[in-house]
Recover the amino acids of this structure.
């Protein structure tokens, strides 16, 4: 296993995967995978198709539970916590194919990301209606701020069904940000996005990182990865293959062979 890239230990870890294993039948999709993210890092997760990247991402986000291993968010092992517990603890994720509520407005979709609202409980609506109204007002203000941030404010009251693929990616980013996560897991944010919106997504992700959020992204667009990430992690056959600066990693023979093997197959 390659040595850890020095930058991962230069800052205090905020998210750490330790020896994660997840099998489906006799196939180990993730086989002893480990990763350390320092606070404020932006790291790219790359690898050929079938490398286990999506399964690893789903383990981190809580869609899947590992057969063994630990996932530390700060000092807390979240490996067996549900996704809603993880986002409450500061870990948010987007999906490769966003699926907004098509008939709800763009604003309403963003509001679904709000956490810990008193109005979610029946009794609070009767016992503390003023508090519920204040929270709802604050949530709506925050949602509008985020729609402005992702440049969708002109579509605030339109149904999500009218959005393009790239706009849906931006909408999902705004929804996740409603929970104010300290760690963002971004699943192929460039996939299916036109060049103009891709530049906007790159700019917004860079700004979120500059604000102090830690970002881990799966991405096949190596230009985007190279522009955003100082460190990339390469998976192959469920395990860590390489780790380092983008140019150094992509120049490695074993990385090239992993990708070329996929093409040959």
């Amino acid at each position: 296993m390659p040595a850890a890239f020095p930058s991962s230990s230069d800052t205090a870890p905020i998210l750490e995967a330790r020896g994660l294993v997840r099998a489906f039948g006799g196939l180990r999709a993730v086989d002893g995978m480990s990763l350390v993210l320092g606070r404020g890092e932006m790291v790219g997760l790359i690898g050929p198709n079938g490398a286990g990247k999506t399964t690893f991402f789903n383990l981190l986000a809580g869609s899947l539970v590992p057969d063994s291993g630990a996932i530390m968010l700060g000092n807390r092992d979240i490996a067996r916590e549900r996704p809603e517990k993880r986002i409450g603890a500061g870990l948010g994720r987007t999906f490769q194919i966003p699926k907004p509520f098509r008939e709800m407005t763009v604003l309403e979709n963003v509001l679904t990301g709000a956490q810990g609202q008193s109005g979610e409980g029946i009794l609070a609506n009767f016992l503390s209606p003023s508090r519920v109204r204040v929270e709802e007002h604050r949530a709506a203000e925050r949602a509008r701020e985020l729609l402005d941030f992702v440049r969708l404010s002109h579509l605030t009251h339109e149904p999500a069904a009218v959005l393009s693929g790239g706009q849906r990616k931006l909408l999902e980013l705004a929804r996740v940000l409603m929970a104010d996560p300290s760690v963002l897991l971004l699943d192929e944010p460039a996939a299916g996005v036109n060049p103009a919106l891709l530049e906007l997504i790159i700019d917004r992700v860079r700004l979120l990182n500059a604000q102090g959020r830690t970002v881990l992204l799966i991405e096949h667009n190596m230009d985007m990865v190279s522009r955003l990430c100082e460190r990339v992690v390469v998976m192959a056959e469920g395990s860590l293959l390489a780790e380092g600066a983008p140019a150094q990693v992509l120049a490695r023979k074993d990385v090239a062979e992993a990708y070329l093997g996929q093409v040959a197959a």
Notes: Confidence is low (pLDDT under 50) at residues 1-10.
